[in-house]
Amino acid sequence: MTELPALSTLARKALDVLKEGGEFRYALETSRFTKREQFKTHLKTATQGTVRGIGFATMDELRREGIIVPVHHTSVSTYYRLRPSA
Q1: What is the pTM of this model?
Q2: 14 is a domain residue
Q3: Alpha carbon distance 17, 51 (integer Å)
Q4: Alpha carbons within 13 A on the beta-carbon side of 15
Q5: Any residues with CB less than 8 A from the CB of 58 and at least 6 apart, and which?
Q6: What total of structural domains would you count in the chain?
Q7: Which of the residues 19, 23, 26, 52 has the least number of beta carbons within 10 Å of its own beta carbon?
């Protein structure tokens, strides 16, 4: 990954977290208020803390550029990490 495409500021910030062992989590969650289920995207640090302000749009930008790939999925969640160096 020597030449990265033009990325947004949030995507570059997410890339720094991912390089340190973080991952994106796209999962079905239940809202505390409405009790309805919906898919949510969170950027998790290596210590499983949540990075606020970075969500689906940033994950989708990195996924479209081929920078992150799915590493594990179930019927209700998918985890994305940096593409391994070839």
Answers
A1: 0.86
A2: no
A3: 9
A4: 18
A5: 8, 10, 11, 14, 43
A6: 1
A7: 52
Is residue 31 one of the residues assigned to a domain? Answer: yes
The whole-angstrom separation of Cα 30 and Cα 63 is 25
- Establish if 19 belongs to a structural domain: no
What amino acid is encoded at 77 in this protein?
Answer: S
Tracing tokens 């989708």 back to the chain, one arrives at 60
Amino acid at the residue 17: V
Residues ≥6 apart with Cβ < 8 Å to 12: none
Using CA atoms, how far apart are residues 69 and 81, in angstroms rounded to an integer?
Answer: 6
Tens-digit pLDDT profile for residues 6-26: 899 999 999 999 999 999 999
Query: Residue 11 falls within a domain, yes or no?
Result: no
